Amino acid sequence: MDWRTSALCTLLLVLTCSIQVNAKRVYASNHVNNICSMWGNFHFKTFDGDTYQFKGTCEYNLVSDCQSLIHQFSVHVKRTQDPDVSKISRVSVTINDIAVVMTEDLVMVNEEKVTLPVHIAGILVEENSIYTKLYSKLGISVMWNREDAVMVELDSKYFNRTCGLCGDFNGIPIYNEFIQSGEVGYAEFGNMHRVPNPNHHCEDPFEDDETDIQQNVVDSCEKHRAICAGIFEDGDWSSCSWVLSPEPYIRACVSDTCQRRPGETDATSLCSTLSEYSRQCSHAGGTPPTWRTDNFCPVKCPYNMVHSESGSPCMDTCSHKDTNTLCEEHKVDGCFCPPGTVLDDISYTGCIPPEQCQCKHDRIYNAGEILREDGEECECWGGNWICTSLPSPGLCAVEEGSHFITYDGKEFTFHGDCNYVLSKDCEGSKFIILGQIVPCYNHETDTCLKSIVLLLNNDKKNPLIIKADGTVQHNAEVSLPYSTVDFTVFRPSSFHVMFQSAVGLQVQVQLVPLMQVYITVDQSFQGKTCGLCGNFNKVLSDDLKTPQGIVEGTAISFANTWKAQSNCPDRPKRMDDPCSYSTDSEHFAEHWCSKMKDKESLFAKCHASVNPDSYYKRCKYSSCTCEKSEDCLCAVFSSYARACAAKGIFLQGWRQIVCDKYTENCPVSQNYSYQLQSCQHTCLSLSSERQGCSVDFVPVDGCACPDGLYQDEAGHCVPMEKCPCYHNGLKVKPGRSISIKDEHCVCMNGKFQCRSWKARVLGCPPPKVFFNCSTAGQNEHGLECSQTCLQQEVDCFSLDCQSGCQCPTGLLDDSRGNCVKPHDCPCPHDGHSYAAGAEITRDCNKCTCQGGTWKCTEHKCPGVCTIYGSGHYQTFDQQRFGFRGDCSYIAVQDKCGNKTGHFSIVTENIPCGTTGTTCSKAVDVILGRTRLDLSDGKVTATDTGTGPLIKYKERKVGMYLVIDAENGLTVLWDRITTIRIILQPRHMGNVCGLCGNFNGNGKDDFTTQGNLPTTNIIEFVDSWKASSNCPDSEPDFDPCLLTPNRHTWAKIQCSIIKEVTFKDCHSKVDPTPYYENCVKDSCACDTGGDCECFCTAVAAYTQACNEAGVCVVWRTPEICPVYCDYYNDPGYCTWHYSPCHTPCYKTCLNPEGICNNTLPNLEGCYPECPEDKPIFDEESQMCVEDCLISTTTPKPTTYHNDHNYRTNNNRIYHIITNAQTTHRFHIFTYTTNNYYNNRNNNDFETYENINKNEQQICEQPVDIECRGVAEPNMSFEEYISHTKQVVQNTPWKYYNNYNYRINNRRIYYIITNSQNTDCFHIFTNTNKNNNHNRNTPWKYYNNYNYRINNRRIYYIITNTQNTHCFHIFTNTNKNNNHNRNTPWKYFNSDSD
């Protein structure tokens, strides 16, 4: 065997550290020292490895947190009060304020009976055919077999913090448990942890002469030892004895056999201890044999499942086929599906082949069944859906006079005051739809849609106008139904007007209670439209594209560019909360709008198909904004009912819950109906010979004549009266006058006669000229349609004319009062104006202003998925959603469909406080064979042993920890609750998960793991659970409703997002969703600032502003302060806070300061190095002139050839190899760039042997690589198979004459060199003549000194007379016994 080093090499016989895991469910292969257990005939094993027997029948504290005045957790157990029966009757677990009581028949949480599984405040309680298990995300796991065995596993963060029958978890056997001020007997120790209970009376076991009694029992039972030893030391258990000493379990077996109760057989008494040894073997990394039979300790499994002593608790199911792949839990005994099958969690028929799995959506679908929904045709196959997109029309909606939903699903709110281009055929000019949005009454933010104008084939001379009062004009007012060669207009009900054209355009206009418009275009217009309704290209991210060709950051700056009249002013963004002005309005809105989300209401039948969350928000907003609150509220309810009807769900009777007045006001002889889908029945239609209509539209509600009656022109079944005049939807009776644009207008003969009140301005500043409407031609409208730079690409439409100064022909108004040539026109963007030739950056593209329009490069840009706070998501394709979930969820992976994936990211919320509010997130990043666990502010790398090796870099940038992988994946984690995932364009369309599929089409982001597009957020989220056992998630909710006392505080704190601090960002990044999430998260926290809910929410908006190019200084000593001076040494001022520092600066890792621009600017603490020391050294955390030693990021765990070694976070784990040949095993920390091979020394590459061969080893290695000499190019797995060598990565090893044991951060040695009896042997768990003995403290023997100090072990080994002895030094060197706490080293070439 040969090996090489990169800088220094150290060979070790014994490893000095064990794997420490600081996050939930990421464990070393051997974690028995994180486990305490009790089993069978009153046997106990402490965390520190002590085993004892205590026959107490009272209630006892098994383990609790004892290092604080208030216990964070406790686990109590109670046995039946029969000393001859060891059954456990109750297990009680208390974690913070949650009390869980488990008995054989039921589970109670806070004294309420629950059905399993149950999840509350980060605590999961579930059961299977053998165990009831409780798991807390705080790092506590309790497993009970509902009979006589309980196992508790704790995270290492509780080290040296516990008390109870499980001991103090300090890593030192015996001490503080059975040796305190003196020796403590088992009964005395057990009685110390009795839990007082006035409702139960029991007697403590006797403590007198306990040692003598136990010794007599041991002596009398010694005759059974041979039988027990024969069982536990049998060759079938060799995998277990290799990693876990069987001696404690042999002693338990001897005790059980000797003290067998009446009626028990040998098998009965053995079952419990064999089961416990089998369980502990699995936890130690071994593989227990299949030792149970039908007649010996049998276990009956449900369905067709089979029992295994060591199987993955994460079983693949029909709904979650990757559960086992993502599993981080330890192997356990239990019932499992046979290989090649998965558990049927849909019809619950047991274990079935995956191809027999059914699919579940609104019902259960068998294989081969077809589902057609939302433009998709999907076939169920093997539990997954195979979907094909069908040609489907685009739908755009303008609702409540201010809310827009584009063809591609983008939603935004805009309060206008002009005519706007709603939608337009930008290629063929087949249609233009303009909408007039103006203030309804007195408030500028209370806006209404007053009319729409339809122009076909760019014919501006013959516009079709539909007004809010229902009147329709085509050059003159027309009666409905009305038809031409090109279109038909009719009223399917009194509430609606329908327009249908021959070019594939359909417009549905709702009139009651407010005017709302639904525009439908067929598939032929895909990618050809523009306007406020977007471009219908199936890409959500570019829906806010202006006529000037650039995508705006906010809806307000986008909408202002689509004005159809050049004299309309730009509208500002509304930043206030309309419900904050009146508690009465807020209560009114909440009372009625909440009915839409009520799970018991009629609307609940549609929740799965149409998510009510956005409609609920709009309902509250509109109700508080509108002067006529009820009308706006009812408009939102009718919008939701229409969306449901489009899905085929008719909410028959919904107006009986809310808005019933509209059903009572039908015209005489007409009736109200919820479902009308027919052409208009009128008197005119009976005699008309013109074309009819198509009934291919979403059914509408409203009033209509009963069958057999026909409607006349008035909308009743009576003759129509003559109409008055109308302006902007305002009805003016004949003879009445109003003011229109500074003109006095009188209604006469159905038309306005107007006269100006102000003097004409005939003089204009040059080069502008005056336009006089009195001399205007037919298609001239003066300032209404004057030529401006902004109007070059927008069609103007007006029926009016306005006199005034305008630019002469050939020049355009630049919106600043100047007349310029077209090529000198400026370009607007995000509320600013840029001169011709100016360049800006939009994402990864560069845009140049040319003649008033932006010309941009078309590079594909990286996608960003953001997860922050308590369940807020923004996908790669910019869909936003939220939910309440306590499981682990797949955020993104490239294993989609039948593809073989190489990376995945799994996130999980870690709760705190009494409400279960999210305090932090645990993140698992799987890169090929490497699993990175991000939790508690740290990264832990583990090698899974399978998959490709994907290189990555780990670094800290500001407040973020960054994982940058070579496969185009970057993860930014603020070490609290925010995760940003960046994917390079090569992954477009090749990923899936909660972050969407990164294909640009935000409408299909909600695709389940079974490949079914859905609109049900909960169905989508639950399909991406990492484990099928976890309870389903819940819809996002407003916690302010539960904590109204915090609502005002939250709104005041979060208002910083909408105020002047962030004003420069408001035009680039819409603050509304961030503000809403901030209020929610701040309400959810127990007290102000808890869990950094508020700070994290504001920081999320700050980072979005950073990425939009706006740097905001928002932190103060009072608001979310960051104290960078903490990192400065006394007298130095290197570290400073920056809200938007570049992540690219000179460091020893990057001495040139050149980056790949993947990362955006990030806030946090950064070093500012002086000119004479311009480079920052990450290791020394100091500014330096030059980097003397190149520093590299620690590599993840790796395995090579016949050496098994593991490095992680600068720690070394195991290199154990070759038990069948004469080659000795070697443990290396790091090696050099040269390979070394000592063929004549039994492949024994120690320092001295290598030096004897005149080979040099560097003093401080940083990496190691080993290979087989005969097969240097063979992989590790292939080499094992080829050479038939035994390779095992375990912490307990019997090899030659030496035994080594690593136990919970401590190393114990058993050195039994029988060839030299003069050598002293170091024992912790043994004596000189017996390797199986109780743990004893360190003693002084011969000329070896051992001492324990502050729970650390220091060695002074001074035997130099016998060179055959192995010498262990921790705090000494070969020639000096003076001790310092230094890394383990070894000396003497015979030390193997």
TrEMBL record:
User: What InterPro entries would the database entry show?
Assistant: Mucin_vWF_Thrombospondin_sf, Ser_inhib-like_sf, TIL_dom, TIL_OTOGL_Mucin, VWF/SSPO/ZAN-like_Cys-rich_dom, VWF_dom, VWF_type-D
Task: Give the top-rank taxon of the lineage listed in the UniProt record for this protein.
Answer: Eukaryota
Q: Tell me which UniProt keywords the record has, alphabetically.
A: Disulfide bond, Glycoprotein, Repeat, Secreted, Signal
Is Glycoprotein set as a keyword in this record? yes
Q: Which residues form the signal peptide?
A: 1-23
Task: Write down the Gene3D superfamilies for this protein, in alphabetical order.
Answer: Laminin
Q: Specify whether Repeat is a keyword of the entry.
A: yes
Where does it localize?
A: Secreted
Its GO CC terms? extracellular matrix; extracellular space
Q: Which SUPFAM superfamilies match?
A: FnI-like domain, Serine protease inhibitors
Q: In what residue span(s) does the VWFD domain sit? A: 34-203, 394-569, 863-1031
Q: What is this protein called?
A: Mucin-2
Species this chain originates from: Triplophysa rosa
